[in-house]
């Protein structure tokens, strides 16, 4: 049996990568099918008469093209379903706007103390709260308990001066017998100001610009 070259994958790639609308995709699929038939006809005309391609090979090629076409249509349906679900998610999470969400996002410091909710590793016998500014530079390091008790961060440095207003993030470094065993992000409560949907799902935007997936919000509360 002679080897068979399948032109379908190459000819249908354009339908999955360049089409901008359902009608355009349908036109591309139709055009690709015509191209496929032309290539199949040329293949039949130029086959070796002493060693012709078996009919089963043609059937395989036709089935392969049909499978790719169906996959393109399935992808379109899945994309439409995802968009519809995203819209439903926006409506569901829209009620969160104006509430305070608990998540590991940067805090907007304006001089008012911020409640930080650290989560040291279970094996830690000591822990430190590390504060970093918007550029990621460490500006403060404070010892904290390992039981996860809330910490009131006042924004006052070691020299007694209040740090500048801006965005600050918090991480917890855990230690065991003096050795650092890990780092974990600390959560805060911050007002939710926007709900956004993209390809990865529903995102929440917090006051100060922090952003995270809705699934990463561990608690909600009314402001005040």
Q: What is the topology?
A:
Blueprint: H1 8-17, H2 22-45, H3 55-93, E1 100-103, E2 107-109, E3 114-117, E4 126-133, E5 138-144, E6 151-153, E7 166-176, E8 179-185, E9 187-198, E10 201-206, E11 211-213, E12 219-221
Antiparallel strand pairs: 1-9, 1-12, 2-7, 3-6, 3-9, 4-5, 4-7, 7-8, 9-10, 10-11
Keywords: Bacterial flagellum biogenesis, Cell projection, Cilium, Flagellum
Function: Required for flagellar hook formation. May act as a scaffolding protein.
Family: Belongs to the FlgD family.
Describe this entry's structure for a reader.
The protein is an alpha+beta fold. The chain folds into two domains: 8-92, no CATH class; 97-221, Immunoglobulin-like (Sandwich), CATH 2.60.40. The chain is built from three helices and twelve strands. It has helices at residues 8-17, 22-45, 55-93, and strands at residues 100-103, 107-109, 114-117, 126-133, 138-144, 151-153, 166-176, 179-185, 187-198, 201-206, 211-213, 219-221. The strands form two sheets. Strands 1, 3, 6, 9, 10, 11 and 12 form a seven-stranded antiparallel sheet that branches. Helix 1 runs antiparallel to helix 2 (22-45), helix 1 runs parallel beside helix 3 and helix 2 runs antiparallel to helix 3 (55-93). The N and C termini lie far apart (78 Å).
């Amino acid at each position: 049996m002679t080897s068979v070259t399948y032109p379908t994958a190459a000819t249908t790639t354009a339908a999955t990568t360049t089409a901008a609308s359902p009608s355009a995709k349908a036109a591309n699929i139709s055009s690709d099918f015509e191209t496929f038939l032309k290539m199949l006809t040329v293949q039949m005309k130029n086959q070796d008469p002493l060693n012709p391609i078996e009919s089963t090979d043609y059937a395989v090629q036709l089935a392969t093209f049909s499978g790719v076409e169906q996959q393109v249509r399935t992808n379109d349906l899945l994309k439409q379903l995802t968009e519809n679900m995203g819209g439903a998610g926006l409506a569901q999470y829209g009620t969160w706007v104006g509430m305070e969400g608990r998540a590991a996002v940067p805090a907007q410091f304006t001089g008012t103390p911020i409640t930080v909710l650290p989560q040291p590793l279970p094996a830690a016998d000591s822990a430190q709260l590390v504060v970093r500014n918007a550029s990621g530079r460490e500006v403060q390091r404070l010892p904290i308990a390992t039981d996860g008790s809330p910490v009131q961060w006042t924004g006052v440095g070691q020299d007694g001066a209040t740090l500048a207003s801006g965005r600050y993030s918090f991480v917890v470094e855990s230690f065991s017998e003096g050795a650092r065993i890990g780092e974990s992000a600390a959560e805060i409560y911050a007002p939710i100001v926007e709900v956004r949907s993209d390809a990865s799902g529903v995102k929440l935007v917090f006051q100060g610009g922090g952003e995270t997936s809705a699934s990463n919000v561990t608690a909600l509360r009314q402001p005040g």
